[in-house]
Amino acid sequence: MSPHRPAVADGDRGADAPAAARAARSLLTSAVRASAGRTAVLVSTGLLSAAAAVALPALLGRSLDLVLAGSAHAGPWLALCAALVVADLLCDAASAHLTGTLTARSAARTRRLALCRVLAAGPGAAERFTPGDLVTRLTANVTEAAAAPATAAAAVPAVLLPVGGLVALAVTDLWTAAVFAAGAPLLVLLLRAFTRGTRSGVAEYQRVQGDIAARLVEALQGARTVAAAGAAERERARILAPLPELAATGRRMWHVYGRAVARGAVLLPLLETGVLAVGGLRVAAGHMSVGELLAAVRYAALAAGLGAVVAQLSGLLRSRAAAMRTAETLAAPAVAYGGRALPADGPGQLEFRGVSVVHDGRAVLHGVDLVVPGGATLALVGRSGSGKTALAGLPGRLADAATGTVHLDGVPVAEIDPAVLRREVTYAFERPALLGTTVADCIAFGPYAPPPAEVVAAARAADADAFVQRLPEGYDTPLDRAPLSGGEAQRLGLARAFAHAGRLLVLDDATSSLDSVTERRVAQALLHQVRPGTRLVVAHRVSSAARADLVAWLDEGRVRAVGPHAALWELPGYRAVFAAPDDDSGRAPYGSAGNDEPAESARRPPESNQPAENTR
Length: 616
Known about the structure:
This protein is an alpha/beta fold. It has helices at residues 10-15, 17-34, 36-68, 74-121, 123-128, 131-146, 148-172, 174-221, 223-229, 232-240, 243-284, 290-303, 306-330, 388-392, 418-424, 439-444, 452-461, 465-469, 486-499, 516-528, 542-547, 565-568, 572-577, 600-603, and strands spanning 350-359, 362-372, 377-381, 403-408, 411-412, 425-429, 504-508, 534-538, 550-555, 558-563.
């Protein structure tokens, strides 16, 4: 298993904290604006419920006084109290329904926005986050962030209710209000301490959750390797290693919450008891009625409504922390495209002009100058880490050069319309991702859907038609019911590329899992059954390099030499690229798996074709 890497470097996280906070605020604000209508209705129902809750104690107190006095007018007041209770229940039911729908719609919108941004950023987004952490951000974190509009809407009446209770208490009796106001600063300090303790804890908890998810996805992706190595227990320990940190963070959050509840459980009854005591004295002195005392006690309970405020505040803090993690996925800049078209009759000439590529702060390519004539096949050869895949990714803008430009038929690829670029530059990879519902969908997956006849023709060219026909439902077999070997999956990836072949076809080690006979058949089909065009081939086999018109030999990110394979074979360093690590002869390991003996002309190249080695 590859070592676990953090989703975002700690230094980057610290340096980008203010920007992430601004992005989170922007994300939450846009979510509220997008659902302004529903949020306004939710706020309105909350305010109506709060108004009913504030009015009810006064009405109950008045009704009690009338009942105790034996008045005949108590009936209408009691009916009004009942109406307020029903209205409060209806408002609560409407708020619950609106909260659910508003959160669901906000989650769908935010998730769609984040997913579109991640896909628009291309492979660069995947380099910033591990797959598991990215999935956590786009699922659980988005759901928590999407609760912000509903939580904010509920927070308005949750805050106004204590304020309204305090005002109504003052209107009912100033002395009882003064007793309650004396303890109000302690409530403010309690909420402040809760906010501080929760803010950092929530962010850390969500980060560790993402870390565990990333480790789990890594293990699932390498399940066969884990099983073959007998490392299940070791992987389990690695995946669950952050659990103590998660537990510690969770305990800290519960301690903060518990302290707030415990202190509130002591403070609030004291305040209510103080109000009741003073109110009782006022009733005994004849300055308050029994009904007014009931109203004062109820208003004191409303004014001390710490639980609702704490719950809404906790929800807002969780939403803010989740929004910061979601906003980080939006920070990856989308790939900027131009709007230019390619010459209609262009041969597919590819040019790299002073191209340098930097990855993770390390230079991968250094000032590469290279021309691939239109219609030619160029093989990229070099040891692992020499920059072959980095160079192959530039024409289709799977990555962009730090310096220099790449031109296709004279047009910089950065200025080409994305629809044109995707149609004209096609890729086949070593480990293709098989997307789609059925095998036919997988081959047709691309910028356009080729007709069924072209799908079958592409499968034949990739030597895949025979095994596809043996599947239970042929081309209509669902992918999840199609058991595929590594070579068969690679052939489906080749078929997909062949079905969409444009003027430039890039094969990034796309035949590495094929046996020599199948590779030779695919190579012949590529010449005669696939749309003609320029080919850029990342080659590891001698046979692949020998079949190419030209070979570019890369070494440590630089082009050492360019020429026919037969001519390059005279260079000992080039021959060593194909040699086994323990082969001191500098010759290719003929007959070994994955390497074919080159043709006689490759072993004895004519003197006139020998290139000069570039020692740059």
